[in-house]
TrEMBL record:
The lineage of its organism: Bacteria, Bacillati, Bacillota, Bacilli, Bacillales. GO terms for biological process: phospholipid biosynthetic process. ATP binds at E74, E83, W84, H85, K92, D93. Belongs to the bacterial diacylglycerol kinase family. Mn(2+), Zn(2+), Cd(2+) and Co(2+) support activity to lesser extents. This is Diacylglycerol kinase family protein. A divalent metal cation binds at E74. One of its GO terms (cellular component) is plasma membrane. The chain crosses the membrane at residues 29-47, 53-73, 94-115. The active site is at E67 (proton acceptor).
């Protein structure tokens, strides 16, 4: 499947198609997107400053990107090595580990950014 001199609009269409396929076929990306929407709504609710909001969007992008790359790596490994193989397992597990690291960093950043507004909201600060 070699495509040459693809128009820019076709490149964007293919990229969007990849995102849609991942969203339709991968449970974890749907979870990440759902949680991201909830976090963005919470950021609006607590009126986080623009810098904090930008940081939230950055880590959301990091997690979604990691999940898309994980999906791509898993698809390639399944194509090349349909049967179980130790190296295929390493590739898949490390790609999933990258998503876990990105999500963990996002959670820590979220806790740091939301701690004070949530404590104030509960009247504990």
């Amino acid at each position: 499947m070699k495509v040459r001199n693809q128009k820019l609009t076709a490149s964007f269409r293919n990229a969007l198609e990849g995102i849609v396929i991942a969203f339709k076929t991968q449970r974890n990306i749907r979870i990440h997107v759902t949680m991201s929407i909830m976090v963005v709504l919470a950021a609006f609710y607590f009126k986080l400053p623009p810098r904090d909001f930008a940081l939230i969007l950055l880590v959301i992008g990091l997690v979604i990107t990691a999940e898309l790359l994980n999906t791509a790596i898993e698809a390639i490994v399944d194509l090349v090595m349909p049967e179980w193989h130790a190296l295929a397992k390493i590739a898949k597990d490390t790609a999933a580990g990258a998503v876990l690291v990105a999500a963990g960093v996002a959670v820590v950043i979220g806790l740091l950014l939301f701690y004070k507004p949530v404590m104030i909201w509960f009247g504990w600060y």
